[in-house]
From TrEMBL:
Residues of the Transcription regulator PadR N-terminal domain: 7-78
Pfam families per the UniProt record, alphabetical: PadR, Vir_act_alpha_C
Residue span, Transcription regulator PadR C-terminal domain: 92-167
Name of the protein: PadR family transcriptional regulator
Amino acid sequence: MSVRHALLALLSEGPKYGLQLRQEFEARTGEVWPLNVGQVYTTVARLERDGLVASDDGDEPGPQKAYRITPAGGDELATWLRTPPAAEAPPREELVIKILVAARLPGADVVQIIQAHRRHLVETMSRFTRLKQDAAEDDLGLLLVADAEIFRLEAFVRWLDSADARLRHHTPAAVPPAVPSTAANDAAATAANDAAATAANDAAATAASSAPTTRRGTGTGARAAR
């Protein structure tokens, strides 16, 4: 929003005081964008320095100092109104940055974050809708500003819905948890138990095969003793 050019537009209607400029600016914009009177005096002082406005009531800004637009100021205003906004890089919208960061942040539930911001935007749209319903039919500034905000917020809601769908589509499926390292220990223990069991079976088989030989030896010795 160019406060500089908005004040030039107000002054194009005739001379005005600083306080009057603030009041008319807020009335023209539906009182949605409050303007500090100090900002008004700072801006008109710069306009006067640049030769775009003039005053005949002294050098110091104040409530009794009236300003009027100069021919150069009229040309500046006309040029600004006809000139399209500069084609610059996309603005650094905080909401967009938050979603971009959350999408890559470990542990962040980006879907939940998107839904939280979506609810907030929808609630804000509802407030502007109620503001329009309560506004007077001839309050053109407020109606135009409310429409602009509703359309802007609606665009962000649509972007969040698109981002949610895109992230759900591109986010890889959950990877099954890795096999714990103790599994290797369990396998080793199983192998050791199998080996132990095999050894026990071998030992039992050996004992069973050697048992008759032992009995025969005992019997021979007994006969020899007799």
